[in-house]
Each structure stands twice: as C-alpha cells, then as structure tokens.
C-alpha cells in the first residue's frame, strides 16, 4: 500500500472513547485505594505494600493480552473481545470493593490483617486485572489502525480522553459529598460518598466501552497486512516467537524509553500512595493515622480535587505536546515541570496552593501517556507482534511501581515517616527520568 489512509477526527475519537470510562475506574482506584485501606485499618508504613498488587497484575496480564490478541481474528475483531470481557469484570468488582468494611468481619484477623482488608485485597487484584484487560486493547488498536503520521495525534486524543476520565473519577467523591451524601462513616467502614463514586463509575465505564465496541470495526487479516506492508504468507510460515525471543529482538527504543518509564512510574506510585497523608498533614494538620476523623476524610476528598487539577493540567498539556518539533524536547520539558510540582508539595500548607503543585504534575502525566507509545509503535513499524510488544512494554510501567511499593515502607522509615518527603523524592525521580531521555534515539 503506497499511501496509508488517514482516519477522520471522529474515527480517532471513537477508537479511544472507551478509554474515558476505563480511566474513570483507574482514577477511582488511584485516588481512593490508600484512603480505603487506611480506613480499613492499614498503618501508613503498610500502605505501599497494597500498591504492589495493581502493577503486579499488570505485568502478568498485559503481555498475555498482547500475545493472544495478536493471534485473535474473529467476527468481533482482534482486540475488542478482550476489551468487553475486561470491562464487564471491572464493573462487577467496582460494586464490591468499596463495601469491604461493611461486611461485619473486620474484627477477624489473619496473618496480621483483618478480614475486611483481605477482602479488599482480593477485590483490588480482580479490579486491576480487569482494568488492565480492558485498557490494553485501546493502545493496541491505535498501533494497528493508525498510520505513523497520525499516531502522535491519536495518542494525544487518547491522553485527552484518559485525563477527562481521570477528572471525573477524581471529583466523584467530593461531588457526592456536595449533593448531600455522607462523607464519614463508623470506624472501619468506607464512607457512602466513596461507595457511590464506584457505583456511578462502573456505569459510565460499561457505557463508554460499549460505544467503542459498537463504533469501531477492526481490520480483517488481509487488510491489516496491506496496511502495514506485511507479506501474510511469509509471516504465517515464520516460527512464532516467545516473550524471551521478542525481548532479545526488541528495538533499542524499547529499552531506552523503558528506562525513562522506570523513574516516572516510581514517582507516580509515591503520589498515589502518599498524597492523602501528605495533604492531611500539611493542609489540615491532622495525624494521617486518624482516619475516622472528619478532617482526614475531608483531606481524602481534597486529594480527589488536586488529582482532578492534575488531570486538567494534563488535558491542557496534551494539546500542547504535538506542537513541539522535537518529541524528545517535549518529553524532557514535561518531566522537569512535573518534578517542580512534586518538589513543591513539601513546602505547601494551603490546600488551594496545593492545586498549583498538582497542575504542574499534570504535564509529566500527559507526556507519560502519549509519548512512550508514539516512540515505541513507530519503532516497531507495523510488527506482527505489536500487541505482544505493547504488553511487554507495560512491564516498564508495572515493574517500577512494584519496586517502589515493595521498598516504600523502608524508604518512608528512612524519611522519618514523612509522607511529604516521599513526594519530594518523587520529584527527584522525574529529574532522573528527564536526564534518561537523552539516551533515546529517534529516527
């Protein structure tokens, strides 16, 4: 095919619209998991350990989704069957997770955790697994169906929809509190404002995913081969490569962008884990262990607000990114601005000024959502293993979160238990990520 056809703006939006709903679920998880487990009785030094589960499930699930969806050609499509299955499971779990403290078994303890926390842990495992199943196909469909010229625009649209979903998910708890739903509950019970946020988020998730499922028609094998200049006969004759072989043959871009990813995602794991405690202490002057207090729960709602401000910053910056002539320059600038935002949290004690810090963090988030996938899919040049590589590339998102979560208890101990200091450290990580961008080679 001499010239790859362009998609209309509407088609590019339809391709990623379901990501809006998936990201609402992810935002609710990101902003409320520490709050939920602290409410269920977790110690601040334990909080990072609960965050090991989401990226661990991502490392397991997303490469498998990539591998098997590469080989799936059916009437429903190539990636779409996984999309709808993941969304349905996520909806079911979202109805269960926030009720972990309402099932009357918090007093029972097993291996140092009460049974409510065990229920929450297993719910979190299934929630993050299903979110990963539903999320990955959107990235793959852009790689499958969009030409190189439009990929930056396509991933920027996906970034925009992602951050719009985050904005809604982050604001749900404070919105429901504003309309009169209780934001406090007995000790060990998740407030109704959070519970209803998960319920409404589940409804929006399934509606958005069904929209993309109905609107998007994936390419059949022959059209896909022509679009990507692949000789289908020769590809079918080649022996199938496993994950180890794919990693050995991975383009250098896979590894250099992965190094940048390591620093970036470790930083954001700290943000999700320690923002509630940092804001509660800095802006409300409350002990982060006093989770039943009205002040702590108010700080928990404000975390949703500043995370929403971060999403607004990312929405605005996503529109700016395509205007940079150099993708590497846009990457570096974005991460450095985000680093300033993280570092400033340490010194801010006014809740409204805190919004400025998170707005700056949004620039790094926008770049992390769009630029790595643009760089990688362009380097892969229509590889028949596109899905497998994107699944493996997700390990560069998950592994740093696992490392940061596993060592979080030790690091916060070295920081004297200070959660604001953990966010200052996150800023340092982003600076290291910006320096690592130099190693990326763009043809």
Structural overview:
- With 443 residues, the chain is mostly helical.
- The protein is built from 18 helices and two strands.
- The chain has a single domain (9-439), classed as Up-down Bundle (Growth Hormone, Chain: A), CATH 1.20.1250.20.
- Helix 12 (252-284) runs parallel beside helix 17 (395-414), helix 12 packs antiparallel against helix 18 (419-436) and helix 14 runs antiparallel to helix 18.
- It is globular and about 65 Å long.
- The model has no long low-confidence stretch (mean pLDDT 82).
Condensed summary:
The chain is mainly α. It contains 18 helices and two strands. It has a two-stranded antiparallel sheet.
- Specify the biggest β-sheet: 2 strands, antiparallel
Q: How many helix segments?
A: 18
Distance between the termini: 22 Å
The geometry reads as globular
Task: Tell me roughly what share of residues is in helical segments.
Answer: over 70%
Give the tally of structural domains: 1
